């Protein structure tokens, strides 16, 4: 088991003339939240495999990091690193074995050159100011997790070579079209919430288990029907008026269509594994057909949200639902034991 090094409590990162003593036998160094402006007072053992510099005040890279030939995980999350500051890392050949590179929450304007990392598995550049995915072509096809949320990206491009990708996070960008997904035969999770997408287009993929398209501009659910492996769907805060094309999704456990324009519940009778159903903040008038609509999962359903619908104004609303779903554990915010 690897040892994780924590700095001694008496160490003061603001004293430039004091060197923080590190256990040289440790392979993991966690400097999270020390508010360091540089690493001059920190020893960097040559045998490090993980270096976590999360939540500091770094605006440039310490050149000694280039000597850490065993490094596998490197995190600069929540610092002050810009494009110029990160540029040297693309020339540090001794870091070619890094598998996880985290640059989340910095001041990047573009995708940094990651071509050096031939074994990269995780690449995180979320919460920056990146406007384009240009540069992703240089990222190794070994990549399994890509996080580019909360940026200014307008187009899904230069990513179709990432055949091993399992998680793709592009939420909170400016995407209008779902595209270039056809090669992601191993993709398990796709997160595209808070964009400007109007139409679901999964390019024929059938392997996805989780998809989020919350807070987009959807008016229809069409486009999900071939994704038979889906277990979780999040479609809240759109303009969907009808539940449709869901009957083939027999592995579905979680369905969130809250805050839409639904007037009834239908098309999910075949979903025998459904456990969570979120329908709150719609325009569903009556509970009259709810038992039939969710007949396939009556025994399985444990959570249902229907508040802020006209049907929820009925005085015996929760009693009816508890009668329909014998194993229900939660109705809206109310838990039952």
UniProtKB/TrEMBL annotation:
Entry's Gene Ontology cellular component terms: nucleus
Keyword Protein biosynthesis: no
Region (Disordered), start-end ranges: 1-21
An annotated GO BP: cell division
Keywords from the UniProt entry: Leucine-rich repeat, Nucleus, Repeat
Cell division recorded as keyword: no
PROSITE patterns the record matches: LRR
Protein localization: Nucleus
Domain of life: Eukaryota
Family membership: Belongs to the SDS22 family.
Protein name: Cell division cycle protein 27-like protein B-like
């Amino acid at each position: 088991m690897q040892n994780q090094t924590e700095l001694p409590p008496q160490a003061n990162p603001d004293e430039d003339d004091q060197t923080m003593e590190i256990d040289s036998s440790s392979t993991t160094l966690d400097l999270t939240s020390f508010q360091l402006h540089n690493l001059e007072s920190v020893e960097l053992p040559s045998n490090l495999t993980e270096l976590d510099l999360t939540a500091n005040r770094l605006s440039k890279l310490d050149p000694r990091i280039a000597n850490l030939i065993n490094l596998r995980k490197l995190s600069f999350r929540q610092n002050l690193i810009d494009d110029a500051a990160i540029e040297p890392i693309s020339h540090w050949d001794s870091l070619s074995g890094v598998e996880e590179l985290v640059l989340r929450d910095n001041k990047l304007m573009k995708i940094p050159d990651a071509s050096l990392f031939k074994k990269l598995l995780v690449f995180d550049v979320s919460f920056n100011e990146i406007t384009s995915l240009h540069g992703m072509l240089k990222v190794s096809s070994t990549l399994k997790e890509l996080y580019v949320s909360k940026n200014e990206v307008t187009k899904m491009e230069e990513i179709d070579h990432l055949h091993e990708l399992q998680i793709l996070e592009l939420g909170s960008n400016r995407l209008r079209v779902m595209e270039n997904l056809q090669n992601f035969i191993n993709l398990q999770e796709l997160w595209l919430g808070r964009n400007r997408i109007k139409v679901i287009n999964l390019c024929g993929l059938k392997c996805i288990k989780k998809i989020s398209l919350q807070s987009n501009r959807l008016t229809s659910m069409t486009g999900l029907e071939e994704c038979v492996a889906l277990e979780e769907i999040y479609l809240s805060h759109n303009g969907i008026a009808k539940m449709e094309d869901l009957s083939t999704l027999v592995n579905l456990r979680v369905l969130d269509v809250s805050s839409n324009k639904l007037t009834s519940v239908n098309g999910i009778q075949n979903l025998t594994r459904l456990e969570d159903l979120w329908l709150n903040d719609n325009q569903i008038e009556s509970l009259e057909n709810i038992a039939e609509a969710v007949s396939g999962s009556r025994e399985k359903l444990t959570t249902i949200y229907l508040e802020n619908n006209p049907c929820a104004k009925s005085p015996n609303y929760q009693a009816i639902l508890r009668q329909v779903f014998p194993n229900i554990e939660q109705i809206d915010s109310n838990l039952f034991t």
